[in-house]
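Morning!

As promised:
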Amino acid sequence: MAAAASPSRLAILVVFFTRVAYHKTMTVDITQSRERILDFLGTHKVGVLATADATGKPHAAAVYVVCDPQLVFYFITKKATRKSTNLSVNSQAALAVYDEQSQTTVQVDGQVEVVTDPAQIDRIFTEIQAIARLTSQSGTPPPAKLLADGYVVYRLSSPTARLASYSDTPATDQHDIFEIVT
Amino acid sequence: MRTGSNADQDKIAAYIQANPVIVVGTVDADETPHGAAVYGCLMAPDTLYFLTKTETKKFQNILDNPTMSLTIVNPAENSTLQATGTATAETDPQTMETVMGKLRKIQTQGADWLPPIAKLRAGPYQLVRVHLNHVRLANYLRAPIGDTHIFTEE
């Protein structure tokens, strides 16, 4: 006959299954949050990138944003722009993409690095041109019109991405406003 | 403030009124940038206000470093407004009442009558005044490459 489970064994089992269930729920939630962020970014491709100069003075500028399924962000600019010179001295940046009507924002921040892989650069340029066509009926992205040295493609890798949906959420549901993907 | 001519100032005021959502860029004590969207309103050519709460990251950053940048984007028009300024907490009751009246009208134009900041538990409300040092409007639509008239002034 099998021995009856002792109270301590039961407690361990309860903790184990609770953790499994919790982990499963969190995995599903994070997957859904990631999908919701990607859905939002699929239709909102213009963001504002905040950088800081060598003295710590902030600067923010609009960029077309390409995002891959791993929530790694790409944007292009030219080498002599303020954002580019700032990134050469401080590689930290923050990106905010918002929708005024639905009161939704995606916020990310992290390290920015220059993309050097030619195939990746080619892909980003193609996608940026498509964004220019979609958003303003022009195939020319704004940096193309600036005389500010050569192009540079940047990658922003953020440890977390945060989606905030204010209009869907009652004022009492504070914790439902944010969805954070790590 | 450097914003060019009076005509430029009128254009800038009209642009902010038509596009009241502004991304404010701040930096923390470690010089890490942060960007967040707010509703803003211009009360004078060099004075802009927005409402936040005292425990938000942007306000905490402002306490460390009051220098900030402000950016508005209108993707359909391919235009942006970029400004830099210095932020201070507004404390004058009469000014607060006047500004809040204007901000209320702007904030209730969204999908929800409550402004986003109202839904955050982040301490008491704080009205922030930004003294603008520099503002420029850029319109890229139909501008030729290298056009020097993209910006309202340089």
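Chain A has three helices and nine strands.

Hope this helps with the figure draft.
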